[in-house]
Amino acid sequence: MICYSDFTAKHLATEAKEDKDIEELSRADDVAYKSPLMPIRDAVPVTERQISLDLDPATEFSALEEISDEEAVRIFVPSAMPPASLSLRDYVDQSETLSKLVQLGVNLWKLEQRPNVGSMLLRLNFNTDVAPRLLFLKEIGVDDSHFGNIITRNPFILTESLENLQARVNYLKSKKFSSETVASMVSRAPYLLNFSVKRLDNRLGFFQQQLNLSASNMRNIMARLPRLLCGSLEPIKENLKVCEIEFGFKENEIQHIVLTVPKVLAANKRKLTQIFDLLHNTMEVPHHLIVKFPQVLNSKYLRIRERHLFLEYLGKAQYDPNLPNYISLDRLVSLPDEAFCTELALATLEDFHLFQKTL
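== Transcription termination factor 3, mitochondrial ==
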């Protein structure tokens, strides 16, 4: 069982401050919000201002020469950046940071939908703020091609201190995640490095205790679905209770299901309940067969239903391995339509399509 050790405490010493609630930041992805992006004058160094006078080109003025009010009004001084805008696109030509982020594949349109993110990006200096963190990602093994996606999904990694980022990577390695695994986890779950060492330790401990997993099995699940460490724990707790109380699975059965298909933990509760009800109550598949083929719990409900109804119409819906003409759940959900028709239903694809139209 993972515990909060002295080694973990040593990494905590490098934390500058407790991280903001990343779960709230994750939910901000879905907020359709736009606010004017106010220019940050320090974002673009202006070495020279061009003053345009709508006067006679032959007329020259001394810096100390007095001019009339009429001539003063006609003087135009262009600003370095737009005074305000609803889109980051208007700042790309003037901002080195935005321009290079676009080159990396960052989706500015997605970022500008999120509160205050646009203004934050305009404040960043590419050489001192962005480049060091990109170099850090490269040094821990993240491929360059993933930079754009990581920043698009988690722009706040650009404001994390390098000491904190390194401490979190060191912690994961201390829990025997390989360097390659850590790089893969960061690429697929960009918010991972925004969690403090303490929070990472608590979350790993939660999964190990709730599922009664060995350290090796816990690492296996997190390596395959690292976003489990970043999202809310409430849906996961609820799914575990549903599997145990409503579905009636035993602890060792739930453990086997999760080890085989980790996505079950993060599945939509309504979808999970729909599929189980179809399998167990309609198709009369016993618990032990569902545990044997847990991939069905991660399949599409309509695919299972349509195929079962077609087999039932043909008199071939037989899922008991002890009886003739047995059809395994694995093949039922994994085969493409054509193979399903020819190998399991013994019918044509056209027959299946015609049957689907009657549903």
